[in-house]
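Researcher: Good morning. I'm working through a list of sequences from a screen, and I'd like to move beyond sequence-only analysis. For each chain I'm collecting a predicted structure so we can compare shapes side by side. This is the next one on the list. No need for commentary yet; just the structure.
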Amino acid sequence: MYAKEKMKKKNKIIAYIVGAFVVFCIFIYAISTIDSELRKLGFLPTYTPTFTQTTTPTKTPTVTLTITPTLTITLTPKPTNTSIPHPEGSSGFCNDGTYTYADNRQGACSSHGGICTYWGKGK
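Model: Good morning. Structure tokens for this chain:
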């Protein structure tokens, strides 16, 4: 029942949008018609384009600039937590900087971006 009500509401919104678009189109048509009639009657100025002939410019040399980018990538190994003393009872270090106290590697740091270093319980 909820889906039908939601669909009805969506259809109403679409109908309002389509109606507003139709009104907008009618308004634009009316404005353009009034504008052209006022120009015909002389109430608004008419614009007549004028064309002037210009000489053809002589060809100028084409300059092409070529840029070759150089990309240098430096890979730095991820630091491990083996040299830093860890809290007693912890079994690993997570990628977000927290420690895990999980009994095994599986599932350790699952909500903390994964395991950075795992040393196991009692180490």
